[in-house]
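Design job #97: recover the sequence.
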């Protein structure tokens, strides 16, 4: 039986956010076929779930180390002195590296789950390396820089994009197989990655949502729903853009419209936004989001930068709650504007799409049905996990 070592930046449990859902599913699947070890950092609330994780996952070896290095100016300077991207610096540990070095050569395959963990694969490792690119990472920072108005911050973001680009070029060259979403593959090949190394994968969500009964328009309220990690800059930026540019248009038409925002670790800017408006509710983390799906009429994902597949959008498709997103939010998915969801990039168009879904039951039902149909056709875990096995055996 092959021995596989999974290197992942956070505890892959509980599966409540996009990247963790994928990591969790992959490890579960690998355990069905191979002897699996996991090495990860413990961040934020991870230690609270450690014992439960150990019980659920029968691992051959498990290495964990607490690490919480914040994204701030001081650490940015330190990373620049070392000549590495900030995210690599935030996931850097000498003691963790020694622990990995002690066991890595016992494994036939290293599954590097996220680019920041590649730094723990020693040059003399002779086994197979599978790199799982959760996103084309440099592209996120390049796009972020493109919308940033502050010149100093724009230059800092471009610097990060440049460093990450060169690091992604380097690790794609060293890996034997690179797993990435189709749109990320395209971008990585543009910067020199070998197209022959790629195997297609997707970030998916909770496809059991496909089994739930249809949400009924008449049982929903004129309200909007957002679910996401509220400490991630792309999500923060999108919500602030929505509040500044789209929300005023909507409120002129429906003064009683409400927005529920579900997610933990809400950034201070989002807390300030909600404090100013009684119709915006920050719920914090919610264990069971099903009642929110049933009560709210429209799901929003206003993203202005990012890359890869957006799990929050896929979950909306599964559940059949009509979604309004942007070109960034829909990229990599086989979806069409006004057929499976709405894809709008200007405030006026975004508001108009939401207003149509709030008031047009026939359109709402069509989007609901088409969304669930395409999700069932293309975005279930069965095909994605089969590719993981192919990557190991190839």
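Job complete. Output follows.
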């Amino acid at each position: 039986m092959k021995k596989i070592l999974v290197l992942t930046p956070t505890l892959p449990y509980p599966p409540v956010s996009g990247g963790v859902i994928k990591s969790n599913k992959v490890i579960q699947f690998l355990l069905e076929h191979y002897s699996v070890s996991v090495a990860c950092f413990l961040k934020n609330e991870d230690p609270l779930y450690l014992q439960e994780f150990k019980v659920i996952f029968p691992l051959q070896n498990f290495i964990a180390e607490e690490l919480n290095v914040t994204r701030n100016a001081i650490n940015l300077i330190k990373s620049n002195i070392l000549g590495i991207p900030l995210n690599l610096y935030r996931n850097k540990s000498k003691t963790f590296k020694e622990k990995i070095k002690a066991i890595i050569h016992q494994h036939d395959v290293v599954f590097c789950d996220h680019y920041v963990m590649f730094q723990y694969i020693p040059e003399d490792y002779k086994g197979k390396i599978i790199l799982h690119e959760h996103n084309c990472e440099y592209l996120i920072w390049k796009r972020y820089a493109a919308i940033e108005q502050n010149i100093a911050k724009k230059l800092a973001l471009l610097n990060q994009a440049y460093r990450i680009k060169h690091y992604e070029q380097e690790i794609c060259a060293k890996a034997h197989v690179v797993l990435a979403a189709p749109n990320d593959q395209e971008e990585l090949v543009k910067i020199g990655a070998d197209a022959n190394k790629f195997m297609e994968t997707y970030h998916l969500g909770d496809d059991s949502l496909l089994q739930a009964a249809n949400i009924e328009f008449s049982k929903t309220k004129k309200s909007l729903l957002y679910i996401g990690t509220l400490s991630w800059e792309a999500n923060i930026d999108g919500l602030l853009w929505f509040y500044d540019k789209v929300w005023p248009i909507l409120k002129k038409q429906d003064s009683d419209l409400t927005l529920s925002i579900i997610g933990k670790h809400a950034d201070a800017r989002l807390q300030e936004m909600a404090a100013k408006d009684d119709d915006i509710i920050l719920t914090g983390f919610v264990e069971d989001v099903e009642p929110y799906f049933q009560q709210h009429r429209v799901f929003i994902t206003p993203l202005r930068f990012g890359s890869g597949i957006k799990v929050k959008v896929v979950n909306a498709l599964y559940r059949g709650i009509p979604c309004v997103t942007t070109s960034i939010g829909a990229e990599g998915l086989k979806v069409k504007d006004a057929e499976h969801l709405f894809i709008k990039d200007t405030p006026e168009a975004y508001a108009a799409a939401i207003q149509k879904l709030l008031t047009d039951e026939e359109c709402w039902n069509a989007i609901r049905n088409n969304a669930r149909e395409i999700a069932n056709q293309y975005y279930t875990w069965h095909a994605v996990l089969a590719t993981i096995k192919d990557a190991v055996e190839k």
